[in-house]
Amino acid sequence: xxxxxxxxxxxxxxRKLELLVQPxxxxxxxxxxxxxxxxxxxxxYFGIAFTDETGHLNWLQLDRRVLEHDFPKKSxxxxxxxxxRFYIESISYLKDNATIxxxxxxxKSCIYKELIDVDSEVVFELASYILQEAKxxxxxxxxxxxxxxxxxxxxxxxxxEHPSLAYCEDRVxxxxxxxxxxxxxxxxxxxxxxxxxxPTYGVHYYAVKDKQGIPWWLGLSYKGIFQYDYxxxxxxxxxxxxxxxxxxxxxxxxxxxxxxxxxxASVTRRTFGHSGIAVHTWYACPALIKSIWAMAISQHQFYxxxxxxxxxxxxxxxxxSAETRPFMEP
Length: 330
Description:
Elements: E1 5-10, E2 16-21, H1 27-36, E3 46-51, E4 57-59, E5 78-84, H2 97-112, H3 120-135, H4 141-150, H5 156-160, H6 165-177, H7 184-195, E6 204-209, E7 215-221, E8 224-229, E9 236-241, E10 245-251, E11 254-260, H8 262-270, E12 277-283, H9 286-309
Parallel strand pairs: 1-5
Antiparallel strand pairs: 1-2, 3-4, 3-5, 6-7, 7-8, 8-9, 10-11, 11-12
Helix pairs in contact: 2-7, 3-6, 3-7, 4-6
Subcellular location: Cell junction, Adherens junction; Cell junction, Tight junction; Cytoplasm, Cytoskeleton
Main location: other
Keywords: Cell junction, Coiled coil, Cytoplasm, Cytoskeleton, Phosphoprotein, Tight junction
């Protein structure tokens, strides 16, 4: 009889679930189990991922068994992360308070780990909302300084940009004093409204190269596929919205998208060409390319499901199953 494998699932509230995953357990069943710890009803926005050997998050496919995924070959338990996989324009679209709180925890973690580009002055303002949410109204400078050392509120990069920790704390205190009277819920909503306006929020970035070997970032989100300069994750050089996509596929080290180009279509009609399709291709190691393709497929399906159901995103987490995929690998 085949034994299971030990897994450690890191949750958004800093808890860790230690599990013995059995060989037949589906990723969907694992997600259900984790979601039950938060009494989470809107599971469709979340996923479970592991960090692959390239340093990127690789998401479990819900219709596959957990242990069928290509985990890094390391000793000890498999380390998994429960976090937001599918972002939306605003938490106002969410129906349940538990979901909103998890989006808040997810955003707070991304800011603190410097996964989102944020100006240091905005960081200080966000830190004040974290204090208001966790501690309530301002009491004294000494208490705030102590709390800031315990809370995940000030990323290392923000501290490096200023002469001292005390200066950063003073800036946070200035913002914090203005929040007196705000409820915990208001602090969360105001925090999220700022984060949702940041250009790099909600984008999954992947390091790729073009045919000439020039490095780029490929950003995938509910909006589409964006291509960024390697030293600038804020302003995309190319934008491919999901509604423009005709096909996407991968083979070994190559990920390609076929995009409907209206300008090319008008030219080809005049010159009796076949169609207005432009093909864009990027390169990386095979494992990362497959991960990019899987994320693109699921994000496109998320877009289609939201488009179909308008406000209600979709009926259930079936976006990973083969029958829902509009584009398949060749």
